[in-house]
């Protein structure tokens, strides 16, 4: 079998691949199928028999992912496999790997989409599984962009040299349209004084310092004794939330200093109804400048004008007058008080609709 895409040819491994596979084995790159020999002396035998055992058993197939672009010379840039195929249940699982030098080009997504289409076109299988470690953001991106649905997390499901890892389970059904779920793109937003961007490693010290602020401790649910580990976990959770289509988080940078000034996040995103909730934290060293309201207003305009949302909600503790001022400066309208709304505390409820910004 062979599958042609815009840039790739997916084909069985063969004896002609021996020089390339030996080179990959010598380099220590780990993306080839399970069972690939650790020493070059075993490559010829593996290409002759071992790599084809899965196909002969009827449980799947290992395919080379080769560069079919002009100048690509058919070079092996990755591998993709079907395995754990149950013809009775009508299910199979897909796995993939890309050579480190060829990552970030979308090859894995292109290959997964093509192989999934081939499965549903040429077989009677009804479901394709895909699993990825919860902390492997690149692989989670591939699954989403290939049209798979995030179905759940198996806690501590795999044991690797650095310890247990949670495993995300994705699924693609024959009747799915194969299109990625709707997510907010990772775009930078600019205002006259601010840059809203993804969090980066350089933000960790400032985020830890923000979380230790007494006002933030009193009015948010950030952990006490916030550490760098908490910050890194927050980065991962935020990106996974975005990939699931549930929201997004921005680091708000002061352009003049390049320092973290605030955090603005969108959560509980409901694409069907066009609604979401906005939350924020202001760094103590940046308060009093109107930065948070400026950032929230920029996010609101982006959500309304670029992504068609119809209503944003914002909640602030009735005792947190500074947060309420931010909401009002950003254009939000107070609607009332939600009693015992958050950990038993009354919350002032605000909303913003597109006509409020006209």
Automatic annotation (TrEMBL):
Superkingdom: Bacteria
Cellular component terms per the entry's GO annotation: cytoplasm
Chain ranges of the N-acetyltransferase domain: 8-175, 194-356
Keyword Aminoacyl-tRNA synthetase carried by entry: no
Pfam families: Acetyltransf_3
InterPro entries the UniProt entry points to: Acyl_CoA_acyltransferase, GNAT_dom, Ribosomal_N-acetyltransferase
Keywords: Transferase
CDD domains noted in UniProt: NAT_SF (cd04301)
Transferase found in the keyword field: yes
GO MF annotation terms: protein N-terminal-serine acetyltransferase activity; protein-N-terminal-alanine acetyltransferase activity
Record-given protein name: Protein N-acetyltransferase, RimJ/RimL family
């Amino acid at each position: 079998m062979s599958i042609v895409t815009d840039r790739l040819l997916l084909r069985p491994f063969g004896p002609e691949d021996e020089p390339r596979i030996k080179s990959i084995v010598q380099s220590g790159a780990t993306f080839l199928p399970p069972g690939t020999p650790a020493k070059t002396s075993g490559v010829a035998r593996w290409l002759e028999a071992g790599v084809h055992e899965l196909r002969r058993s009827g449980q799947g197939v290992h395919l080379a992912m080769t560069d079919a672009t002009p100048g690509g010379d058919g070079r092996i840039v990755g591998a993709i496999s079907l395995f754990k195929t149950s013809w009775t249940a009508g299910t199979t699982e897909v796995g993939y790997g890309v050579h480190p030098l060829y990552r970030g080009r979308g090859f894995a997504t292109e290959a997964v989409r093509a192989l999934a289409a081939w499965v549903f076109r040429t077989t009677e299988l009804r479901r394709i599984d895909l699993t990825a470690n919860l902390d492997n953001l690149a692989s989670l991106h591939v699954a989403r962009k290939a049209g798979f649905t995030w179905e759940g997390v198996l806690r501590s499901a795999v044991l690797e040299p650095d310890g247990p890892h949670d495993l995300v389970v994705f699924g693609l059904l024959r009747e799915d349209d194969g299109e990625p779920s709707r997510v907010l793109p990772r775009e930078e937003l600019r205002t006259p004084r601010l840059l809203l961007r993804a969090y980066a490693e350089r933000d960790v010290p400032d985020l830890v310092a923000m979380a230790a602020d007494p006002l933030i401790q009193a009015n948010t649910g950030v952990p006490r004794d916030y550490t760098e580990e908490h910050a890194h976990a927050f980065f991962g959770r935020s990106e996974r939330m975005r990939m699931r289509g549930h929201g997004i988080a921005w680091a708000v940078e002061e352009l003049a200093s390049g320092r973290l000034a605030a955090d603005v996040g969108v959560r509980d995103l409901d694409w069907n109804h066009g609604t979401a909730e906005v939350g924020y934290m202001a760094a103590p060293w940046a308060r009093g400048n109107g930065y948070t309201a400026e950032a929230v207003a920029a996010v609101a305009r982006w959500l309304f004008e670029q992504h068609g949302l119809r209503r944003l909600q914002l909640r602030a503790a009735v005792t947190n007058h500074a947060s309420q001022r931010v909401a009002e400066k950003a254009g939000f309208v107070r609607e009332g008080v939600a009693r015992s709304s958050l950990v038993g505390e009354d919350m002032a409820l605000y909303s913003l609709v597109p006509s409020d910004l006209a």
